[in-house]
Specification:
With 197 residues, the chain is mostly helical. Helices cover 72% and strands 0% of the residues.
Length: 197
């Protein structure tokens, strides 16, 4: 029996699985996430899910790496912004922040893995975060043209932006109660840059 033809606009099964898995992993963490629940939310059986992803670990790794690919693309596009350094830096900071706001399940998953010392995602996070962070930090140092405050720790400021964006995005309906309106660009201007002349 032939497989039914894919309808125009229909999301491929592996992508539907990855989207459902992201939500499940974000809500319950790796250990408590359930493959049968993920499969059911995609309208497929657990064996069908395992046809596309051989194990929960493989699916988890796929979901986490996909998020880092997306974040990397957002940051690299922003680093190519035309204009002066401040405009480029603003694009980087707000690009990351807006990505997290639009993908709260990614933010929740990253927050969960960052604070879970024995989590499966810890090694993946380190392997993906450090090179990406170093790339952005080097871009700042190569392009700042004397606009940084003296003795500023660029990486520390970047991590404040990252953690603020991840936590505010993952806090759901508490974001406005706790943060008001998160403004990572104001944080960068205050801590990283000299006053504009």
């Amino acid at each position: 029996m032939a497989r039914p033809k894919k309808r125009i606009g229909e999301i491929e099964t592996p992508e539907r699985i990855a989207n459902a898995a992201l939500e499940e992993f974000a809500k319950h963490g790796y250990a408590q996430a359930n493959l049968a629940t993920i499969a059911k939310s995609c309208g497929i059986s657990r064996p069908s899910l395992l046809y596309h992803f051989k194990s929960k670990e493989e699916l988890f790794e796929h979901v986490l790496l996909r998020a880092f690919v997306e974040v990397g693309e957002v940051l690299r596009v922003a680093m190519q912004t035309e204009g002066n350094f401040r405009e480029g830096l603003k694009a980087v900071v707000l690009g990351f922040h807006h990505y997290m706001q639009q993908k709260p399940h990614v933010a929740c998953l990253l927050a969960r893995e960052l604070v879970h010392p024995d989590g499966l995602g810890r090694v993946l996070l380190m392997n993906q975060t450090l090179p990406l962070l170093a790339e952005v930090e080097q871009w700042v140092l190569d392009n700042e043209a004397g606009e940084l405050q003296s003795d500023v720790d660029v990486r520390n400021v970047l991590m404040h932006v990252v953690s603020n964006s991840i936590l505010s995005a993952s806090s759901g309906d508490l974001v406005h109660t706790i943060w008001g309106k998160p403004d990572p660009w104001a944080l960068v201007q205050m801590t990283l840059l000299q006053e504009a002349k």
